[in-house]
Amino acid sequence: MDKMTLISLFQLGGWSMWPLLAMSIVTVAVTIERAIYFLMYDFKVTDIEEKVIEFLKNDDRDGAQAYLKTFKKKKLAAHIILEGVTMAKLGEHRMEKAFEAETQKKVKDIEKGLNYLVEMGSIAPITGFLGTVSGMIGAFGAIAKATDVNAQLVAGGIFEALITTAYGLIIAVVSITAYNVFTNIVERFITNIERVGTDVVTTVLIQEHEKNNK
C-alpha cells in the first residue's frame, strides 16, 4: 500500500469527513481558548483566606475590603469574597446571597464554551460511525457487483469505511478529556470558595455575637 497522508485519508473517508473536520476545528478552538482563559485567571482561594479572616476577627471589615480590592480582576476569589464582606452589615442572609450570586456569575464565565466540548464528544463518534456504515454499504455494493471477489477488495472497502469512526473517536477523546480537565478545575474552585465563604460568614457572625454580648 502506498504511503498514506492526512489528505489521502480525508479523501478516502468520504462525505462524513467534512462535518468531522468542522467538529475537530470547534474542539481545538474551544480547547485552546479555554486553556488560555484558565492560564490567565487565578483560581487559588486559600492563599488569601488567612489574611481576610484575620481582618474579620479583628472586626476590621474596612481593612478586609481594602485588602481584597488590591487584587486585579484575574483573582476571581478576591472579588467573590469582597461581595460577601461588603454585604456583612446587612446580615447573614445577604452575605450568603452575595457569595452565591457572585460565585454563579464567575462560574458562568469560566464555563463558557465548555458545552461545545460535550456536544462534540457526543456527536463526533456518531457521525464517524454513520460515515462507516455509509462506507460499508458502498463497499459491499462494490463487492456484490464484482465478478472476482478477493481479500484485497474486501479489506480495502472496510479500511476506507473505518477511517471515519477512528476520526470521530479521536475528536471525542480530545473533547471529553479537555472538558474533564476544565470542569475538575472549576469544581475545585467552587468547593474552595464555598468553604471560604462559610468561614467568612461564621467569623462575621461570631464578631457580631461578641459585640452584642459586651
Written description of the protein model:
The longest helix has 62 residues, at 151-212. The chain has 214 residues and is an all-alpha fold. Helix 2 (17-40) runs parallel beside helix 8 (151-212) and helix 3 (46-57) runs parallel beside helix 8 (151-212). Helices cover 83% and strands 0% of the residues. The chain has one domain (6-208).
Strands, helices and their partners?
Elements lengths: L5 H8 L3 H24 L5 H12 L3 H9 L6 H11 L5 H19 L3 H32 L5 H62 L2
Helix pairs in contact: 1-8, 2-7, 2-8, 3-4, 3-8, 4-5, 5-6, 5-8, 6-8, 7-8
As a whole number of angstroms, the C-alpha radius of gyration is 28 Å
Helix fraction, binned, reads over 70%
Rounded average pLDDT: 87
Oligomer: single chain
Q: How is the biggest beta sheet arranged?
A: none
Beginning-to-end CA distance, first to last residue: 89 Å
H/E series: HHHHHHHH
Individual helix count: 8
Q: Strand pairing plus helix content: what structural class?
A: mainly alpha
Shape: rod-shaped
For the secondary structure, the number of strands is 0
Task: List low-confidence stretches.
Answer: none
**Residue fraction in strands:** under 5%
Compute the number of structural domains.
1
